[in-house]
Design a protein that fits this description.
201 residues; mainly alpha; two-stranded antiparallel sheet; 59% helix; 4% strand
């Protein structure tokens, strides 16, 4: 008997909508902070990875594209990608890039640097994105944060799509920085093991 869909099974629509909105107005990128704080709050208060297992719209999107639409090779994720060295190394790298983005935002807030209306893909390629900024009542720093945060979200989505094609649909979940952080929190609270990650593989 086919299991009835629940409301949270459609959160992939939210993830897709977020990426589309950021294409037309970069300030919508601020909404991405929900994907940053909600998993942390759940893991801290509940001691579980419920967000990763149930509410992650991005993981659902990869499952849909790679699974239902058959755009995944469905190969096993290589061992090095599952290793603690890679996952924690990627988390550290992610934090370095994230704090660099915050520093650039601060410089714009402080008036030491002009607003850069570009989205940086894969931390390397700067894509002009000026059409998505229509001004704001706040400092240009608010827009700079939006450009930076959207760059992070778009980059992680592209990485997820690449590993989705090469391996199993939700291969991104193996090394997702947010998943690694919530895993560490769960370990600290209840000794949650790596097998409890809910990787969807």
């Amino acid at each position: 008997m086919k299991q009835k869909k629940k409301w949270y099974d459609y959160l992939w629509i939210v993830s897709l909508t977020y990426l589309i909105l950021g294409f037309f107005n970069i300030l919508f990128a601020w909404l991405g902070l929900l994907c940053f704080f909600i998993p942390l709050i759940i893991s801290i208060t509940k001691g579980t990875k419920a967000y990763c297992n149930r509410y992650c719209g991005r993981g659902q999107l990869f499952s849909l594209i790679g699974g239902r639409f058959g755009l995944s090779r469905r190969k096993d994720v290589p061992g090095w990608m599952k290793s603690g060295y890679f996952r924690y190394g990627f988390l550290i790298f992610f934090f370095i890039m994230f704090f660099q983005m915050l520093w650039n935002t601060y410089l714009v807030f402080a008036g030491a640097r002009d607003l850069r209306m570009a989205v940086t893909l894969l931390w390397t390629f700067k894509l002009p994105w000026h059409w998505a900024y229509h001004g704001t009542l706040f400092s240009d720093g608010a827009a700079q944060f939006a450009f930076g945060f959207y760059s992070v979200m778009l980059t992680s989505t592209v990485l997820g799509l690449i590993t989705m094609v090469l391996f199993k649909p939700r291969s991104w979940c193996v090394y997702c920085p947010m998943g690694t952080m919530t895993q560490l929190i769960c370990k600290a609270k209840h000794g949650t093991s790596h097998s409890d990650l809910g990787e969807g593989l």
